[in-house]
Write a structure and sequence with these properties.
The protein contains 16 helices and 42 strands. It has 792 residues and is of the alpha+beta class. The N terminus is likely disordered. A hairpin with a 5-residue loop joins strand 34 and strand 35. The strands form 9 sheets. It has a 7-stranded mixed sheet with strand order 21-20-23-26-27-18-28. A 6-stranded antiparallel sheet has the order 1-6-5-2-3-4. It starts with a helix and ends with a strand. The chain folds into 3 domains: 164 residues, no CATH class; 188 residues, no CATH class; 216 residues, no CATH class.
């Protein structure tokens, strides 16, 4: 009964709204020709369109945006043909979309875009938008063919399309595009169409939005817009400019220099309340709640915190660690409201967050360090000098002296020396660090950051990523790729929450795990300032251990980092390439072709590597247990790349279940280079479909989860590896045997290579160098279309 009463209330409310709203419409406008500019010409504060009709083109626009985005709307096959809608006009795309979808049609050869939408037509459209719609307009015969108001239409849209991603949003309309199809607001750019477009510029409004599309406006809240902590740029003696989400607008106003301020814009006039600069300082850390500066420590953000480059371009707070020189800090009421910085053209220094061989992440409970040359400890306004090899011991219970008034201390070796950190476990017994060591105290422990010159940072990377025994040319190749990779990681700033640009593990590139060597340092010095570029942009020069004879396309290996779509776009310099000369094979997508190449004795640049070919045997029980254990963890980390099906046919994302004993494994898609892109694992109680090389390698690890057994992987030279946590590469196939019940009883995986397979093979570099290739030739081979350039 309660639900029925709710529906009846909705009927009654809508009925009275109609009667109230349309006495004016039916009496005052029935004999007038409604034009597009009349439809929502509404700039006064209050509800929008209570006494104005919605037109058929307004309805077409709103419905199109409910179902799709502007790109798909514009790219819809042009099927609609109406004499009153020009196929070259912007509005045609919306008319065509609703026509192709079977939602709206015309009358004969006309669509009548400017005619008011009637009440009965509105009900029909709402029912088509949402088949489960329970909102019904109670209408009598004498009003059903009257025009529905713009306000009521929008209220119905909100009601029926809320579960389709539509919502009401408050927006400050800063400007409109020249084509009047994009509004620039405080919350980004929004697509819209109403024929005139500039009616709401300079107003604070409520609008119905889906994604970055505006379906309609419901209320004008203010006839002005206010923005906080804005960069105001001096353009001339009497003009200034303001840039909101990359939209620049000029105003008449006089200032002596660029200023930060709160602004109010009304009728194209600007009022500015300046905010004084607090200090020039260096940013040490950027978190979700505060920044940390060198002089003032942690400062919480103002509610409307902004970040700008000093040329006025709006930026992101994560970029602050890429600052060149000091940043300008602006504060209000004890909180940082804006920071201006100059972005570095290339890394001069690198800030590396250090891990204890990644055992405890980046948080350390105890730190013991010393320096052969002695060091100076800086804490707050104090400093203390330590003698050569004198230890500094810091733990949670023994740090009050140094952290009583500050959260960060600095260790600076004397006479250009290095700092040894005894509590960090690395492959080489005692890691020594150039540059400055910073220690930040947190509630959970300490974070260590090593800041040093970028080129010196590479001294610690190259020998970790390329064996010194490979020789001079491979080390030079590695130096250029490591420099290029580090360049991009510096600007990505993935570790800004730790006050760093990069870490020292395989999450970035391994740093200072092996110490320094004269040969690798010479390779860095001889390639100083050399980067790999593609079309004048430094590329992310991905590399891996060993190829199986082909490299992979990047888009067939990794999902898009933003959209998570897979496959993704392949970078033109990260394409599948055969790793041998005079190849007539262009693709290994076919399963038979892949198996044939895997079994062949083709000599490639990687042939001498132990990882070039490998195999591993597993029992059916070991396989089933490995999939069960791995799928649970993998789903937590990469849910978008896994799908589950209870019947083996209809797969869906967002859930995973134990599929029990394994019946079969199907490789459903390979990339051009032969890498497995998609795999389906079929069990007794469902199936799992997994995408992407890393996820596939993780879902079937050559590891035993059965007590008393080991899974042993064997390489081509006889080397054996026990219970690996991940398959060496995604370049593999398999053969299996089944029991009488159809379950896999044993399986043999046969494959080649080690690593993701995209970009440069390090063992391949060694093979090419042995054949006499120069370091430039090797780099161009692995990164197609690239070139080696010096950036000073």
């Amino acid at each position: 009964m309660r639900g029925g009463q709710g529906v009846m209330k909705k009927y009654i409310i809508i009925f009275f709204v109609i009667i109230f709203s349309f006495v004016l419409v039916s009496c005052g406008m029935s004999d007038k020709n409604i034009t597009k500019n009349q439809v929502i010409y509404y700039n006064e504060v209050g509800k929008v369109g209570e006494d104005l009709p919605v037109t058929r083109i307004d309805a077409a626009v709103a419905i199109s945006f409910i179902f799709d985005d502007i790109e798909n709307i514009n790219n819809m096959e042009k099927k609609a043909q109406f004499s009153d809608v020009d196929i070259e006009s912007y509005e045609y795309n919306f008319v065509n979309y609703v026509f192709c979808k079977g939602i709206m049609v015309g009358e004969g050869e006309k669509f009548k875009p400017d005619e008011p939408l009637t009440i009965i037509q509105a009900q029909s459209l709402i029912d088509l938008i949402n088949s489960e719609n329970k909102t019904k307009i109670k209408m009598s015969d004498d009003i059903k063919n009257k025009a529905i108001s713009y306000a009521l239409w929008n209220s119905l849209i909100i009601d029926v399309a809320e579960n389709m991603g539509c919502k009401e949003e408050e927006l400050k309309i800063f400007d409109v595009s020249d084509n009047k199809d994009i509004y620039y607001t405080d919350k980004g750019q929004f697509n819209f169409y109403n024929g005139s477009g500039n009616l709401f510029v300079g107003n604070t409004v409520k609008a119905i939005v889906r994604g970055n599309n505006i379906l309609g406006f419901t209320e004008v809240l203010q006839n002005q817009i206010e923005f906080k902590n804005i960069f105001v740029k001096k353009e001339s003696e009497n003009t200034v400019s303001v840039n909101i989400f990359s939209r620049k607008k000029i105003f008449d106003y006089s200032i002596n220099e660029n200023i930060c301020g709160d602004i109010v814009i009304k009728n194209n006039d600007i009022e500015i309340i300046p905010i004084e600069k607090y200090s020039d300082d260096k940013i040490k850390l950027v978190s979700d709640d505060y920044i940390e500066t060198e002089k003032d420590g942690r400062i919480n953000y103002d509610e409307n915190f902004t970040v700008y480059r000093k040329d006025g371009v709006l930026s992101d707070k994560s970029e602050l660690l890429c600052a060149e020189n000091l940043c300008e800090i602006y504060m209000k009421e004890g909180k940082v409201c804006s920071v201006w910085f100059e972005k570095a053209k290339k890394p001069e220094n690198m800030r590396v967050v250090l891990s204890d061989n990644n055992k405890d992440g980046y948080i350390q409970n105890e730190i013991v360090l010393r320096s052969k040359e002695g060091f100076k400890l800086l804490y707050g306004n104090n400093e203390k000098e330590f003698l050569p090899d004198e230890r500094l011991i810091i733990d949670i219970n023994n740090c009050g002296e140094y952290f009583s008034n500050n959260c960060r201390i600095y260790i600076k070796p004397l006479n250009g020396g290095t700092t040894s950190i005894e509590t960090l476990t690395k492959a080489k017994a005692l890691p020594k660090y150039r540059g400055t060591i910073e220690i930040e105290k947190r509630d959970s422990g300490f974070v260590i950051v090593n800041e040093l010159p970028f080129e010196e940072y590479l001294y610690g990377v190259v020998p970790c990523e390329m064996p010194v025994s490979f020789g001079k040319v491979p080390l030079m190749v590695q130096a250029v790729t490591a420099r290029s990779y580090g360049y991009n990681q510096f600007f990505l700033n993935r570790f800004s929450e730790y006050g760093a640009n990069i870490d020292d593990t395989v999450n970035s590139q391994v740093y200072n795990n092996m110490g320094e060597y004269e040969e690798s340092n010479e390779a860095v010095d001889e390639t100083k300032n050399m980067f790999l570029t593609y079309e004048n942009t430094v590329i992310s020069a991905n590399y891996f251990s060993t190829s199986f004879g082909f490299t992979a396309n990047s888009g067939e290996t990794w999902a898009d980092s933003v959209t998570k779509e897979f496959p993704s776009n392949t970078q033109p310099y990260l394409v599948s390439t055969p790793q041998f000369e005079n190849s007539e094979i262009s693709s290994l997508e076919n399963e038979d072709d892949f198996r044939k190449f895997l079994k062949s004795d083709t000599e490639t640049y990687d042939s001498s590597s132990p990882w070039y070919r490998w195999y591993v045997n597993m029992t059916g029980t070991e396989l089933s247990q490995a999939v069960k254990k791995s799928s649970e963890n993998l789903f937590k980390n990469s849910p978008a790349m896994m799908e589950y099906s209870s019947n083996g046919k209809d797969f869906e994302k967002g859930k995973v279940s134990n599929i029990g004993r394994i019946k079969n494994i199907e490789i459903t898609k390979r990339g051009q280079g032969g890498n497995v892109m998609t795999i389906v694992i079929i069990g007794e109680s469902g199936a799992i479909r997994v995408n992407g090389e890393y996820n596939i390698r993780k879902i079937i690890p050559p590891k035993s989860f059965v007590n008393g057994t080991d899974v042993i992987l064997k390489c081509k030279n006889g080397m054996e590896f026990k219970n690996l946590s991940i398959m060496p590469s995604g370049f593999f196939t398999f053969d299996c045997e089944k029991d009488s019940n159809g379950f896999i009883s044993s399986i043999t995986f046969k494959g080649g290579g080690n690593g993701h397979g995209v970009g440069m093979s390090q063992n391949g570099v060694k093979g090419m160098a042995e054949k006499g290739f120069s370091f430039e030739d090797i780099l161009v081979h692995y990164f197609k279309g690239s070139s080696v350039n010096t950036i000073e």
